[in-house]
């Protein structure tokens, strides 16, 4: 009998798969690989990283040091930030607070 995965499990699998696909199956990706993945998979994020200065600020928020490749941990920090922002904007009218830890 085939295992049926939840939507959350499928979403996590998609995040991991897309990261490694963009990194050419490596443990990290270059900023060029990151920009390509973001433009294809995260268009809202891509708008906030359209120029070098904005990209640098985004990478800094992700914990990426200047000249360093992006690890999955760095990418996960971005996903955490985006999820928290989306939750906050969709639940403001309900006065629901996200107790997620912010990095």
Write the layout of secondary structure elements.
Layout (H helix, E strand, L loop, with lengths): L6 H16 L5 E2 L1 H11 L1 H5 L4 H10 L8 E2 H20 L12
Antiparallel strand pairs: 1-2
Description:
By secondary structure, the chain is mainly alpha-helical. It has a domain at 15-63. Helices cover 60% and strands 4% of the residues. The chain has 5 helices and 2 strands, in the order H-E-H-H-H-E-H. It has a two-stranded antiparallel ribbon.
The major beta sheet can be summarized as:
2 strands, antiparallel
Radius of gyration: 15 Å
Look at the helices and sheets and give the structural class.
mainly alpha
Mean pLDDT: 88
Shape annotation: globular
Descriptive terms for the model:
two-stranded antiparallel sheet; 5 helices; 4% strand; mainly alpha; 103 residues; 2 strands; single chain; 60% helix
Brief write-up:
This protein is mainly alpha-helical and 103 residues long.
